[in-house]
Amino acid sequence: MSVTRIGAPAGLVRMAAALVGLAVSASIAFVAPGVRAEIGRALEALGSADPIPLALCALLTASALCSTAFAWRTAIGSRLTHAGACARYGAGSLANSVVPGHFGGAVRAALFAAVADPNTRAHTLARCLAGTAAARWLSVSVVACGAVAAGELPHVAALPAIVAVAATAPVLLRTGSGSMALWIAVATLARVGAAAAGCIALGLGQPLGAALAVVTASAVAGIVQLTPANMGVAGAAIALALSSRPDALAIGLALHGVETLVGLLFGLVATTALVIDENAPYARSTRGRARRLRHDRGAICRLGGVVRVAGDALGRAAPGAAP
Question: Which of 87, 202, 253, 312 is the most buried (most CB within 10 A)?
Fold first, then answer.
């Protein structure tokens, strides 16, 4: 499997970000007993949640990941199948689940770049990254405006959303990323649906408005990923967006926990499929060599039998041969 090499400065920066994230994770786990208590309440809330909306939340979260993978595929080209796009995007999700610093983004870029046209690889990857980022923030800005209209976020939040729309729309027009933006919009709608289903499962009132606030807060918290899967940070951001609800922190941790678990499982399945797919040609060639070897051995055995029969016939026909 060919992987694009990441430069040394970028590697040092990501290593530093990983160390900072691990330090933050350790401080959350061992220094903040209040957070541990909130995690316990979040687990209790998930244990008593309605299973059907909770399952729908997980399904829609996985659908959002697949839709984003399809957006990457539209930039790379039709050489890549939908399953291959999901496998490569899921490998990045797995990396983000265990390593901080948006390391999964580098994994996705390397895996998608490996299947792009070598002549236009740099341009294709730049178009993919710029287009998906612009489409994502355009969708999140629309969601934020919806959360403001629903009364879940303060009116001041509409200002950066409008600025984001004005900044991202020209990027989409310049890169010609219409189909990519459509898939990102589908992914955003799936995330809103997943958050609404999660709110219903946890018994929150006005689940649609709460879901709009949850998606906005998660997107803003994901700008800087200090911990693996942004654990703790995203939950706190969701709690801040739902501060008017009781047990907001426990609800935020529960919703983000479901998203993290789905991303981890999706990444494990996708990475396993990717490894199997990458090793399939070698396995096929190995089986082919084994079949050819068995065929050659059979042919040699048959040739040896023919030689022995011919030798016996010649021996009997030779002068002085025994009758």
Answer: 253
The contacts of residue 126 (CB under 8 Å, 6+ apart) are none
In sequence order, the 6+-apart residues with CB closer than 8 A to the CB of 195 are 57, 210, 211, 212, 214, 215, 255
pTM for this one? 0.75
Full domain range(s) for residue 203: 8-278
Q: How many domains does the chain have?
A: 1
Q: Which of 266, 312, 233 is nearest to 86 (CA)?
A: 266
Could you report the per-residue pLDDT of 190-241, keeping only the tens digit for each? 999 999 999 999 988 899 999 999 999 999 988 888 788 888 788 888 988 8
Within 10 angstroms of residue 297's Cβ, the number of other Cβ atoms is 10
Residue of 197, 233, 166, 175 whose CA lies nearest to 61 = 197
First to last CA, the chain: 67
CB contact at 8 A, 135 and 180: yes
Q: Is residue 316 part of a domain?
A: no
Q: Is 2 a domain residue?
A: no
| DSSP sequence for 192-227 | HHHHHHHHHHTT-SSHHHHHHHHHHHHHHHTTS--S
Residue 314, domain member (yes or no): no
